[in-house]
Design brief:
The chain has 320 residues and is of the alpha/beta class. It is built from 10 helices and 12 strands.
Length: 320
């Protein structure tokens, strides 16, 4: 089994070949469709997540409240928020899933992500996507249909920004002529980049230019085929393997034997089935699972503690 590339503390802790770690999606709260979450206890919950041994926190990039989309995420700007959390935590990886890259100039993404990476001692993981909410593009005067091309150019810009006085020509983002530099640089030799979904690219392109792949919930058998295709393509472009992660919504039922009921991209379930399902995901090749508790209406602290007690010990729990 090939190891993953060593990039930074966050990436190396979250992604271990042959293992599956578990993280939590922010906001760590339940909130209604179309409504903003109550962030009053957000910091205490973030610190509890770290204390309990979860490996990563995942924020999202949702620039506009689009009622048809029905989800405003944590409402806070992901980079500003992660910068704040970097100073309030010490070990947990800080991820964003994912920056809608064509909606931002890549120099700002590069500076913000590298700043968080430096301030946190190398805990930043940068998820990227092409964006799938068409209402956001005209609101920023951007063309929705060309976002695939914009995404490729922006990824190239992010990579070039880690070089010293880089040179790069782009159609959408200007030119780097070798006479200006982008600071700061990442804590390690680069920012770890995970590409979400296909981002309007071929899977082969993603396997070549990403450091990992972030995909959606599928049944374990289908996911295994997806991961096999991914790893076969990675092997054509890299001497090391690249990780695969996914997210899943969970409503944790108080009865540990409660049988699963499907919800949007997840389950209402008891602990026993959850452990069985996560074991199947691990065997399929999933390296990290980001749990979203948005629809869980029980005590958030109690749910986190139950997951930490009954789920985390069964999966990757490397030393902090």
């Amino acid at each position: 089994m090939k190891a993953f590339e060593s990039i930074n503390k966050g990436f190396n802790t979250v992604f271990v070949a042959g293992e599956m770690s578990i993280g939590i999606v922010v906001p760590i709260d339940d909130y209604a469709v179309g409504a903003p979450p109550n962030m009053s206890a957000h910091l205490e919950r973030v610190q509890l997540v770290e204390e309990l041994g979860f490996k990563a926190l995942w924020t999202r990039d949702i620039p506009f409240n689009v009622p048809a989309f029905g989800d405003v995420g944590q409402t806070y700007d992901p980079f500003t928020y992660l910068g704040f959390l970097a100073g309030q935590t010490s070990q947990i990886a800080l991820g964003v899933s994912s920056i809608a890259l064509p909606l931002h100039h890549p120099v700002h993404v590069a500076k913000s992500a590298a700043t968080i990476d430096r301030l946190s001692g190398g805990r930043m993981i940068l998820g990227l996507a092409s964006g799938d909410r068409p209402d956001e593009y005209p609101a920023m005067g951007l063309d929705f249909e060309s976002r695939g091309e914009q995404f490729r150019e922006a990824v190239a810009y992010l990579r070039a920004a880690q070089e010293s006085f880089p040179r790069l020509e782009t159609s959408h983002y200007g030119s780097l002529n070798g006479r200006v530099d982008v600071l700061p640089k990442a804590h390690g030799h680069k920012l770890p980049i995970l590409i979400t979904g296909h981002s309007r690219q071929s899977l082969e392109w993603n396997a070549e230019y990403g450091d990992g792949w972030m995909y959606y919930l599928r049944d374990p058998k289908s996911q295994q085929h997806t991961i096999t295709d991914w790893r076969n393509l990675v092997a054509q472009h890299a001497t090391h393997d690249k990780p695969f992660m996914q997210a899943m919504y969970v409503i944790l039922h108080p009865d540990p034997d409660f049988r699963p009921q499907p919800i949007q991209l997840g389950f209402r379930t008891g602990i026993h089935f959850l452990n069985e399902f996560l074991q199947l995901l691990k065997e399929a090749g999933v390296n990290h699972l980001a749990i979203n508790l948005r629809f869980d209406t029980g005590s958030t602290e109690n749910t986190l503690e139950r997951l930490a007690k009954s789920v985390l010990p069964n999966f990757h729990h490397a030393n902090k």
